[in-house]
Amino acid sequence: MTSNPAIVYSGDVLPRGRLFESWERTRHSKPVHWFIECFAESMGVFLYTWAGAGATAAFVTGNILGLEGVGSLLGIGLGYAFGILLALSICSATSGGHFNPCISIAQVVFRGFPLMKAARFIVFQVLGGYIACLLVYAQWRDLIHAAEAALTAAGRLEAVQFSSSGTGGILALYAPPGAHLGLTWVNEFVTDFVLALAIWACIDPTNVLVPPQAAPWVISFA
Question: What is the top-level taxon of the source organism (predicted)?
């Protein structure tokens, strides 16, 4: 029996090595536990940002350099979808699976989530996304530089650099040149509203149509 009946260590059910038993008990101490939760949030954001931005790098550089079969819009969608699926499958059991500052803020406002814990989550979420972008740049550096050189030679670099068709569009979202900013905002609002509906519907314990095992798939493909 454990000293704290609220916690059941896996080592109490299935004998493990002393190192793992020691780690299990250490990770449930307060300072270590909150860091592990924050690390899980960071890792979750890293996974879907790395997958999605990597797929975007393939699409953008492939288009600029005329490389057939390198990247597609479908590939970008699948990259983000399966990146989110990995994040939820691997990390949500540890941190609760916010993986987005908006979700953390909504949890504070509507569900009484601790404010300081949400602040720590948001810092680590941003950090995870930043590290993912650094890695994507490192992995695609040669093709990114080649694409920029091709755009410079064609006199198009300044015109498209910070757009969805330029290399800046790999790591950031830009509205198309001349786009109506009000309509752009409406597009983002409606899209995120529908995604939020999917998330809240999936985590509603009274929603019998979405069992816990199906929630990651529904959220990912939404």
Answer: Eukaryota
SS in 3 state form for 140-199? CHHHHHHHHHHHHHCCCHHHHCCCCCCHHHHCCCCCCCCCCHHHHHHHHHHHHHHHHHHH
Q: What is the dihedral of CA 58, 64, 69, 73, to 10 degrees?
A: 60
- Segments making up each domain of the chain, as ranges: 37-174
CA nearest neighbour of 67 among 145, 136, 141, 147: 147
C-alpha span between 125 and 99 (Å, rounded) = 6
Query: What is the distance between the alpha carbons of residues 141 and 147, in angstroms, rounded to a whole number?
Result: 10
Amino acid at site 15: P
- CATH for 37-174 is 1.20.1080.10
Q: What is the per-residue pLDDT across 11-37, written as a single tens digit (0 to 9) for each? A: 677 777 777 777 677 776 777 788 889
Each residue's pLDDT tens digit, 104-136: 999 999 889 999 999 999 999 999 999 999 999
